[in-house]
Every structure is written in C-alpha cells, then in structure tokens.
Design goal:
The protein has 18 helices and no strands. With 406 residues, it is an all-alpha fold. The chain is globular and about 55 Å long.
C-alpha cells in the first residue's frame, strides 16, 4: 500500500478523477458516426452526453453519503466495476435508446471516481493545501482530455465507435484493481456518518444552506457548464460545420488542454503567494475574456477553426485556475462530511452542465453561434456568482490577507 501523502497516491487519485473526462472526451469524435449509424439527429446524439451527466449528478447524491458511512474504498471499487460493465453494454448497443440507457448506467458507476477522489484529498489535506493538491491533480488528469479525443478519433477511424467503450471498460477494471490493492482507506473511523435518511437530509440541508458552499459551487458549476457547452457542440461545429477530419479533431482539442494545464500550473505557482480567492478572480477574468471573444467572433460571422479554438483556449486557462480553488473552497467547512459535500457539489456541477449541453443540442443551428453564446453567458454568470456570493462569504482562510484582519 502507498502512503496517503505520496506522489503516487496523488497520481492514482488523478487517474480516478480522470474517469469522467475520459468517458466524455474519448467518444466526442464518434458523435457524428453514432448519429449516422443509428439514424439519430444531433439532439438525440447529444442527449447521450447530457444523460451521462444527469446520471453522474444523481449518483453522487447517493455515492457521497455511502462513502461517509462505509469509507471511500469500497464505494469507489464498486462504482468502477459498474462503470466497466456499463461500458461493455454501450459497446454492444444496437439502438440509440439502448446506448442512452447504458450511458446512464455508466455514469452511475463512473461518479464514484471523481466524487470520492475529491473527498479523499479533503480527508488527507487541510483546505488551503487541498486547493494546491487539487490543482496538481487537475494538471495530471489533463492528460486524459489531451489524449482521449485523439485516441477516440483513431479508434473510430480504424475499429469503429464500439471500440471506444471497450477501452473505457478496460480502464475502469484496471482502476478498480489499483484502488483495491494500491491505496489505503483515507477516511478516519471517527468521521463515519450513520446511514439514516434523517441524518442524510440534515447533512444535505446544512451543506446546501451554507452560503460559502453555495458561492463556490455555483461559480464552479457555471464555469464547468461553459466547458461542457464546448464539449457538447465542438464535434458538430469543428467536424460537420468547419470540415475538420475526424482523426484531426483531437489535435485541435489538445489546444484546449494546453490552456487548461497552463491555468492549473499558474494556480499552483500563484498559490505560494496569493490566497485562493485571489487566484479565483484572476481565473474568472480569463474565462470571461475567452467566452466574450468566442461569442463576438461567432456573432460577427467569423467562421473558421481558429476563431473557435484560440478564444476557447483562453477560456480554458481561466477554467484551469477556477476549478481547483472552487472545489477546495466548497469542501473547506465540512471535514466530517466531505463525501456528502463533494456529492452535492458534484450534483450541482453536473446538473448545470447537463442543462448547458441540452441547450447546445436543442438550439444548434449548424454554426458555432449557439455554442459560443452559451459559453459566454456561463462565464459572465460565474463572475457574477463570485462577486455576489464568494467575495462576500469566503471560505475560512481563503480571503485576502487584509480581509481577515478587518
């Protein structure tokens, strides 16, 4: 077993948290082919993404409390096994409806990796240190969306879209084995919560009425919704509208990942001299600038690949700075119920992103306008959430130095 604070434990947790991005990003290049094979429209194919997020969101509300009662490891292992079995079901799907059902089941299992990865980091580290570790984890797991679309494009071109889900199933089984035999249980026995409905409802009510938690969670969810709007629409905009070859899609997508990693590394570096909320504000400025630029270009009729990629890469720099700070801030007040707090955090994040994805699919007009506009709206709403909630109710130790003294 590895030590909980070892670098290898951090890497393995990043690999578990990366399950979510892998399950979405790897099959993005396959969306047009899936629609063609099943005779489904853009809105139906996009629904396989949004249903995944909906299942991901709902499962976390159960997964978190179970982990607070029984520990992180058994729930994570069970979730990873369910994810693997559902992935095989996706590969064997013979209709768009069957694929939707299996994607939903895949999400139920896949939620265990991210929600319990966040909770485990909160178990191991203090809040400010957790923000730094989460930024490092985000940088490591950024390898997943960097490689996933390219790998997915190659698999689609050579073996068909079914092979993507077989690879995901293998990854889920491998992660289940690594968690079972490589990482010790991180949760303190005295922190275990009773599994009673009244206790769960009381915990969720306490978490959900904490203004600091709401501020960080909404800010995170709105930025993530902007990211998911791009994930939902990018394959249709880049491949169908702008004519990017399926096997080249991942190379353009890698530009997004570079922006995200730059933001993560900037957050790690700035974390040595700035408070988390100061980093958060800088990240939101980048996100608003990128979102505003991509929308302005699309609304002006500037339709080319780089008018989408470069502004979105700027948005991703901001996203890479915002997400780790908001994750740590949301969990800061709840060391004894980190699983439940992480679950409610993830539910709001995924539900908001699912709404953005549905809007992109439903309103898609064959150009980049709808996708770009939703990204810009999400970025501006996230900044408003920060100014109205987070800035007024920062997490303990997250406020600027002068604020705590005043």
């Amino acid at each position: 077993m590895l030590a909980l604070t070892s670098v290898w434990t951090t890497i393995l947790l990043a690999a578990a948290v990366a399950l979510g991005p892998l399950a979405t990003d790897m099959y993005l290049p396959a969306l047009p082919q899936i629609g063609s094979d099943f005779g489904a429209g853009t809105d139906q194919v996009q629904l396989t993404l949004s249903l995944y997020l909906a299942g991901f969101a709902l499962a976390q509300l159960v997964c978190g409390p179970l982990a607070d009662r029984f520990g992180r490891k058994p729930i994570m292992i069970g979730g990873l096994i369910l994810f693997a079995l559902a992935s095989i079901g996706c590969a064997m799907a013979t209709s768009i409806d069957t694929l939707m059902l299996c994607r939903f089941l895949q999400a139920l299992g896949g939620s265990a990796g991210p929600v319990l990865g966040r909770a485990t980091i909160r178990d191991i580290y203090r809040p400010r240190e957790a923000a730094r570790i989460l930024a490092i984890v985000a940088s490591i797991m950024a390898l997943a969306p960097a490689v996933a679309p390219t790998l997915g494009g190659v698999l689609v071109s050579s073996l068909g879209w079914h092979s993507i889900f077989l690879v995901l199933g293998g990854y889920g089984l491998l992660m289940a084995l690594i968690v079972a035999f490589g990482i010790p249980e991180p949760m303190r026995p005295e922190y275990r919560q009773p599994l009673r409905l009244c206790t769960l409802m009381r915990n969720y009510r306490r978490i959900g009425t904490d203004i600091s938690f709401l501020g960080y969670t909404l800010t995170n969810a709105l930025v993530y919704a902007g990211l998911f709007a791009f994930l939902s629409g990018s394959s249709f905009v880049l491949i169908e509208f702008l004519g990017v070859a399926t096997e080249h899609f991942g190379l353009y997508f890698a530009c997004m990942v570079v922006g995200y990693v730059v933001g993560n590394l900037a957050a790690v570096r700035l974390g040595r001299k700035l408070m988390p909320d100061q980093i958060l504000l800088r990240g939101l400025v980048f996100a608003v600038a990128g979102g505003g630029l991509i929308a302005a270009l699309a609304l002006s009729g500037v339709y080319n690949v780089w008018a989408v990629i470069l502004p979105q890469a700027l948005f991703m720099v901001g996203t890479g700075m915002v997400l780790p700070q908001t994750m740590a801030g949301a969990l800061a007040n709840f060391p004894r119920m980190a699983g439940s707090a992480s679950a409610l955090f993830g539910f709001v994040q995924m539900a908001t992103a699912a709404v953005a994805g549905v809007l992109v699919g439903y309103l898609h007009d064959g150009t980049s306008v709808v996708m770009a506009t939703i990204i810009a709206i999400c970025a501006c709403a996230a900044l408003a959430s920060y100014l109205l909630l987070v800035q007024r109710h920062p997490a303990p130790g997250f406020e600027p130095q002068g604020a705590s003294a005043s």
